Amino acid sequence: MLKLLRIIVVVLCCILICLLGTIYSLIRFRNPSNVGDVARWFGRLYPLFGLQVEHRFPANAENIGPCIYIGNHQNNYDMVTISYMVMPRTVSVGKKSLIWIPFFGILYWASGNIFLDRDNRSKAHSTMTQLAERINRDKLSIWMFPEGTRSRGRGLLPFKTGAFHAAIAAGVPIVPVVCSTTQNKIDLNRWDNGKVICEMLPPVDTSAYTKDNVRELASYCHSLMQQRINELDAEIAASQAQQDATK
């Protein structure tokens, strides 16, 4: 019963956010800060899932400037966890088929995100070049999930190199953003689903990398993120064990 009630409330909230977000984004048509504003609306829905979410930003988060943010992509719960981490003047890159999702598709387009044709490699490569140009021309940042798909409990998947090519071409840093593990830890029939931690890591300088060693950059960022995810999971487990011991 609790699960059904949650699903109904969440669906209604998401539809409302999509409708209001679309109106908001059309008024400020494709303003690069639309994406972060609407993402944080979704990010405030986490109590509906019985979650406690802690968002950790570095002290200079507002002053990083144009960059490429990369996050770990776990499942649909990303909508209410890591989405809150999207900063102002940041747009995302998504597959073209997103436009056909009811309510969400028009919001994704109107808010200023960038569509990528994943089925056409030459077009995808051209898009990365265009991303670099837009970053410098419009002074904006890009949010990408370098795994390319939801991991769904398979751990941090290998990274595709598109985000890293774009960062090198634009001459901007990579900023990793991680979320502790949520897969198989959320039961919609349970009131309390515990704590989740989302954290923005320090920027990674890309000036020493070129297209010839871009995979080294991707591998380095992957190891940084995997290590921090493990640490966050351990922190949450230790905290939960301490709470259980005091009961």
TrEMBL record:
<comment type="similarity">
    <text>Belongs to the 1-acyl-sn-glycerol-3-phosphate acyltransferase family.</text>
</comment>
<comment type="pathway">
    <text>Phospholipid metabolism; CDP-diacylglycerol biosynthesis; CDP-diacylglycerol from sn-glycerol 3-phosphate: step 2/3.</text>
</comment>
<feature type="transmembrane region" description="Helical">
    <location>
        <begin position="7"/>
        <end position="27"/>
    </location>
</feature>
<keyword id="KW-1208">Phospholipid metabolism</keyword>
<protein>
    <recommendedName>
        <fullName>1-acyl-sn-glycerol-3-phosphate acyltransferase</fullName>
        <ecNumber>2.3.1.51</ecNumber>
    </recommendedName>
</protein>
<dbReference type="InterPro" id="IPR004552">
    <property type="entry name" value="AGP_acyltrans"/>
</dbReference>
<dbReference type="InterPro" id="IPR002123">
    <property type="entry name" value="Plipid/glycerol_acylTrfase"/>
</dbReference>
<keyword id="KW-0444">Lipid biosynthesis</keyword>
<dbReference type="GO" id="GO:0016024">
    <property type="term" value="P:CDP-diacylglycerol biosynthetic process"/>
</dbReference>
<feature type="transmembrane region" description="Helical">
    <location>
        <begin position="97"/>
        <end position="116"/>
    </location>
</feature>
<keyword id="KW-0472">Membrane</keyword>
<keyword id="KW-0443">Lipid metabolism</keyword>
<keyword id="KW-0812">Transmembrane</keyword>
<dbReference type="GO" id="GO:0003841">
    <property type="term" value="F:1-acylglycerol-3-phosphate O-acyltransferase activity"/>
</dbReference>
<keyword id="KW-1133">Transmembrane helix</keyword>
<keyword id="KW-0594">Phospholipid biosynthesis</keyword>
<dbReference type="GO" id="GO:0005886">
    <property type="term" value="C:plasma membrane"/>
</dbReference>
<comment type="pathway">
    <text>Lipid metabolism.</text>
</comment>
<keyword id="KW-0808">Transferase</keyword>
<dbReference type="GO" id="GO:0006654">
    <property type="term" value="P:phosphatidic acid biosynthetic process"/>
</dbReference>
<feature type="domain" description="Phospholipid/glycerol acyltransferase">
    <location>
        <begin position="67"/>
        <end position="182"/>
    </location>
</feature>
<dbReference type="Pfam" id="PF01553">
    <property type="entry name" value="Acyltransferase"/>
</dbReference>
<keyword id="KW-0012">Acyltransferase</keyword>
